[in-house]
């Protein structure tokens, strides 16, 4: 243990800091880091170097080179810089490289040097040029802050949703500030800058002078400032050699340290651990690294070569030409277990496990001591937690063996934390490998989440490792393996040296019917890469037509899209394609396409019936469909025409179409309608009133109601209305008029073709029993009983039923007998029934 703590350095009495090597860098840099623009992404992210920047004198023929490496120094990309002078580099939260040019244009590159997009920071920045820039991170995304040649600031808090904010002017600012940074307060990005001994805070509305509380006197300038990883704390380096540390709001001072060095540092970053009360700042000069905090002493390291600091959630990464190291505060669990002469339960359990492996009885003594204090669960938990914070697998195993040993003596210790730590460490050790180069700590891994880590492995095209991690952690397919395979497929379609057939087959063999994988998304990526035929082949594997069709339309394969839509049976999808085809093709080609697809043609006709009648007529004409064309003209005669002449002309066209269709019945009916329309117009002119658009029956009825009986009879003869129908019409009309005298005359004009029971029914409907009785006597024998019952003459109805000896009629009469009034009639019927049964 004593040897293990050899690289521990105390800062005051309550904290230790250690620096250990992550990787030995083999990136073979040809220039010093100080001669390059450097940007390193947090969370073990990649490193970007822009060699030969414009600030260094080089031959005019030499072009700058942008190189991207993993954190272990493995090359990821290298490209000649062919754009304008670059002022600053930085990584976004999505690990996209942002290159801020002098003209205010920001170029965005992927991890492998692929150009993604660009955007401008505005005309003012273009006119005044960029003096300095910062890339920062907020909860909304990654932002860019610009200092222009006019000493004004412009920023965007989220480059994914670019909204430029021009910050207020600083009064009296004639030169560039000595230092500045971005500060995030209340979810809003601000600019903090130093001008001589004064500090100014810029927000979207105003410029405010601020003063750090408790600042040592004599400060005439601020040389460097740094905001913590979480934007909660701020450090200021003054020209007097003092380092002031406090809250980012500048309302509270944490401590102040005199480093006795007045030279401005190259870098200053915070080094703190989540949930730790210790606060420390790491300051780097040319050959010295200093860790200062709330203690009278500092920790100092000698730098053998140019180094660069990368602030992290729980420490600081320090890399140079030859090494990549991690400096951080020793976690509490590790400190309690490994510090000299520690009697913490975790330290005793670790010793007990080691003695047990030596087969020494001291193991039992250590174990009994822990158990007597009742601290065995705490000891196991300490060892598990400390294992997570250790970088070297051997020490992880030692601590986990100790935890497993302690668990054996506990009855109900939940195994979840132990199992989860074993899984997490296995994942962390895999990604920390030199060839992978993502040196995440346990705290960073938990903050980043497994989903983001998988995304970053996918960005690095480490698909096999990502899939192995998903399978090992047993993640749901949609969140894990399926998603990664979909990314792999999208990368595969970009390999233009492989034929479309081979790529499509390879993707289908690998993906098959994997749930959560959308072939349409992969096909869209293929189309975006200019591989249309590959996209079509991939769409053949897409089972959802709703996903196939939109992409086929986008690729201008409309006819294929129509076939797919018809195969799906989704009418909405077919309509979508039809409307697209209509706008894309000329009228003739569109109609010819429809003729080859009967289902689509039928659906389009339905659409035209409601939306485009003229197009419907053209369709019928093109198909020589005279039957439907005739029906169309009939509908049009009523829907569109108001003048009688126009309607008759439309009907004549319809009749001609029906004749061409050899539908003589429809043609004759149409001609009859034309005659009726002309007659109705003539009636309106001669008699007044409303006749147009009435049916033939309604026209006859209206004439009768108007007293035009002769005209009604003439109309019936002209249109060959059968006598029975005419008598019904006249009977109903005269009853409605209550013209009983005319009705009686009409009934006696000749023998009724409909009989006289309807007269009884109509009269009773009009509540005229007197008139009804007149006709009841004239009703034929077969309907006599019914007629008598209608007028309420039950007794006579009974006599007729008995006379007819009809069982059904007698039953009908009995059903109408009520109470005492018809008792005699009922008895009479019953006696008649009995006599009939005897016979």
From TrEMBL:
InterPro entries to which the protein is assigned, alphabetical: VPS16 (IPR016534), Vps16_C (IPR006925), Vps16_C_sf (IPR038132), Vps16_N (IPR006926)
A GO BP annotation: autophagosome maturation
Keyword Lipid metabolism: no
Coiled-coil features, chain-numbered ranges: 349-376
Chief location of this protein within or outside the cell: membrane
Domain of life: Eukaryota
Recorded topology in the membrane: Peripheral membrane protein
Keywords: Coiled coil, Endosome, Lysosome, Membrane, Protein transport, Transport
Keyword Transcription annotated: no
Database matches in Pfam families: Vps16_C, Vps16_N
Domain Vps16 N-terminal: 4-420
Residue span, Vps16 C-terminal domain: 517-835
GO cellular component, one term: HOPS complex
Subcellular location as annotated: Late endosome membrane; Lysosome membrane
GO molecular function per UniProt: actin binding
PANTHER family reported in the protein's UniProt record: VACUOLAR PROTEIN SORTING VPS16, VACUOLAR PROTEIN SORTING-ASSOCIATED PROTEIN 16 HOMOLOG
Similarity annotation: Belongs to the VPS16 family.
Function, as annotated: Plays a role in vesicle-mediated protein trafficking to lysosomal compartments including the endocytic membrane transport and autophagic pathways. Believed to act as a core component of the putative HOPS and CORVET endosomal tethering complexes.
Assembly information from the UniProt record: Core component of at least two putative endosomal tethering complexes, the homotypic fusion and vacuole protein sorting (HOPS) complex and the class C core vacuole/endosome tethering (CORVET) complex. Their common core is composed of the class C Vps proteins VPS11, VPS16, VPS18 and VPS33A, which in HOPS further associates with VPS39 and VPS41 and in CORVET with VPS8 and TGFBRAP1. Interacts with RAB5C. Interacts with STX17, MON1B. Associates with adapter protein complex 3 (AP-3) and clathrin:AP-3 complexes.
Protein name: Vacuolar protein sorting-associated protein 16 homolog
Organism: Bison bison bison (North American plains bison)
